[in-house]
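Protein: DNA-binding transcriptional regulator, LysR family
Species: Micromonospora pallida
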Amino acid sequence: MDLEIRHLRVVTAIATAGSISRAAAALGYTQPALTAQLQRIERALGGPLFERGGSGVRPTTLGTIVLNHSTGLLALYDDLLRDVRQRGPDDTDLNTVRLGSIPGPLTGPLMTAVRTLLPHADVSLQVADTEEELLDLLVGGRLEFGLGMDYPGYELALPPELGDAVLAVDPIFVALSAGHPLAGRAEVALPDLATEQWLVGEGKDVRMRALFRAASRRAGFTPRQVQRMNASVVFPLISQGHGVALTHALTPARAGVVIRPLAGNPMWVRHRLIWPCRGPLVPHADRLRDALTEAHRVEARRYPVYRDWLDHRTPAPDGPITPA
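Structure follows.
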């Protein structure tokens, strides 16, 4: 077996973690799989790299030699990747565009806009669970553009290597059963939902949860009945009257479910385009921003509830929302 960079990362991770089980968790392996990988590496190098003990592992003499060289080799390799991925805007051989997005209503328009702007590029999409994960991918040079969402007052600060543009700021609405006593109202006051069962997806968006808790406190209650579940069953449960949920204003209609604005607009979500400042596609950022802002405007007018809200809107806290 030839030694590869990924093998050096395995050895370094085990040494850093101090145990095979902790390294396996950090790398996304099972412990047996990482143990087998380590054994193959040790056979290739001609001896054991770690001594096992009750408190974990520690490098052998051979392991120390490998680790000393691994540190420099991995640093050089990472520098090489960073320089390759951060080619300047004058480069003409870029034919792959890697996009990332938090799941949301502008993910599809992002793909469409990039393929329109760069029709000869091979465009791929990676969906991130959180904005933190999205920023890590962008900083690491693994994406050319990212589509993020955060919340006024709960923004995630950008690292200095990244630039961004705000595309739109939307109010957060509530989804109710069509048979709910409040479904006939034009808007619903958050305090009137104090005793409801709140249904939420399994997402890892801690800022959204913090925003909801803060808005509920301001409304005079603590949401005690919160049930986390797979997002695919949230709307079917709502339609049958088993709870309510916060939702994007750009939420498609579903049978048995109505979407209503929250009185006073207590919560907002912000859409933003993010990119590496030294990335090869920086010259396209302004055109992509304009295309996505227009796509949001068109989408917003397609939803009757949101369209009515726009016609009687309150300015968003970050400034004006997308013009009607």
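Remarks: The longest strand covers residues 162-177.
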